[in-house]
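User: Let's play a game. I give you a shape written as C-alpha cells, and you guess the letters that built it. Ready? Here's round one.
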C-alpha cells in the first residue's frame, strides 16, 4: 500500500484558516491553500512546513476544483485530504471520487486541535506588545464581518478603561488595571479606531499586530476577548472553545436594534468588559457575558 500523505485544504475566512494552519504546522503536515496571497502568507507564517497555493476564481473555493486536482495529482503516495470548512470538505469529497482518477481519503476536521496556554509564548508576545502584568490585553476576535468593527470595540474598551481607572483601589483591594485592545491590522475599522484614540491622546490603547489573527500566539498572550458577533444568532467564533479551555473571559456580543439592523451597544459592552477584568470576576472567568 502506498504511503499516506495528509494534506490540509485551507481557504477563508481568516479565523478558521488560522486554526487550520496551526493544526497543519503543529502536525508538521503540508497544506494546499485556496484563496488569496494574503491567506497563503498567513499559512506560511504559522510555520506550515510545505504549502502550495492556488487562487480561487471569483473568491469561490468550488471553482478551484480543476487547479486543486492538478496539484493533488502531483502528490506522491495516497493523499488524505483534510477539509476545514464546508467548501473545502465538499471539494475534498469531489476530488476523491474514483471517476476523477484521484484515490484520496477525506477527513472532516470538525474539531480544532488543542492549544496550550504556553507561558513562554505569552511572555514573548506580551513583551512585543509592550504589555506588563498590570495591564490586561483584550483581543478582538478577528473576522471580516462589518459588525466586528474595531472602532466599536475601541470605544467600548475606552469606556471600560476610564471606569476602571476612576475606581478607588479600596473597592477591590488592588490597584486598577490598565486595558489595551489588540486587533489584527486588517480588522475593519482599525484606522478609524486609531484616529479616535490619537485625537484623545490615548493612542497606546490600541495595539495592531498580525499575531492577533494567529490563535497560537494571540490566545496565550491575551487576558480576555471581545466577540462582536456578528449577531446573537450567529454560530460561535471558532476560537471560543480554546478561550474557554484557557479560562479567558469572552465579552459580547452586545447589540441594539436599529432601522438598518443590529448595531454594537458600546456602553453595555464596556460594563461587561470592566467586570470581566476586575479581581471580583477572576473567580469565574468563564462566566457568560
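Assistant: Ready! My guess for every position:
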Amino acid at each position: 500500500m502506498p504511503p499516506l500523505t495528509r494534506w490540509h485544504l485551507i481557504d477563508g475566512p481568516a479565523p478558521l484558516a488560522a486554526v487550520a494552519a496551526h493544526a497543519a504546522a503543529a502536525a508538521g503536515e503540508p497544506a494546499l491553500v485556496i484563496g488569496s496571497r494574503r491567506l497563503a502568507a498567513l499559512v506560511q507564517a504559522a510555520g506550515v512546513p510545505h504549502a502550495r497555493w492556488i487562487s480561487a476564481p471569483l473568491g469561490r473555493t468550488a471553482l478551484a476544483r480543476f487547479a486543486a486536482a492538478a496539484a493533488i495529482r502531483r502528490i506522491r503516495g495516497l493523499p488524505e485530504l483534510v477539509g476545514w470548512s464546508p467548501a473545502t470538505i465538499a471539494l475534498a469529497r469531489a476530488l476523491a471520487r474514483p471517476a476523477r482518477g484521484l484515490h484520496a481519503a477525506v477527513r472532516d476536521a470538525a474539531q480544532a486541535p488543542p492549544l496550550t496556554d504556553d507561558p513562554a509564548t505569552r511572555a514573548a508576545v506580551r513583551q512585543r506588545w509592550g504589555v506588563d502584568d498590570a495591564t490586561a490585553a483584550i483581543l478582538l476576535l478577528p473576522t471580516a464581518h462589518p459588525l466586528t468593527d474595531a472602532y466599536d470595540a475601541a470605544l467600548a474598551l475606552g469606556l471600560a478603561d476610564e471606569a476602571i481607572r476612576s475606581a478607588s483601589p479600596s473597592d477591590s483591594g488592588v490597584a486598577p488595571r490598565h486595558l489595551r485592545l489588540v486587533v489584527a491590522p486588517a480588522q475593519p475599522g482599525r484606522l478609524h479606531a486609531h484616529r479616535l484614540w490619537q485625537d484623545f491622546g490615548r493612542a497606546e490603547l490600541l495595539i495592531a499586530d498580525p499575531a492577533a489573527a494567529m490563535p497560537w500566539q494571540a490566545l496565550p498572550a491575551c487576558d480576555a476577548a471581545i466577540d462582536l458577533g456578528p449577531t446573537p444568532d450567529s454560530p460561535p467564533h471558532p476560537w471560543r472553545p480554546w478561550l474557554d479551555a484557557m479560562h479567558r473571559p469572552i465579552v459580547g456580543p452586545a447589540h441594539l436594534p436599529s432601522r438598518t439592523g443590529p448595531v454594537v451597544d458600546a456602553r453595555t459592552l464596556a460594563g461587561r468588559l470592566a467586570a470581566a477584568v476586575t479581581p471580583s470576576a477572576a473567580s469565574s472567568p468563564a462566566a457568560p457575558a
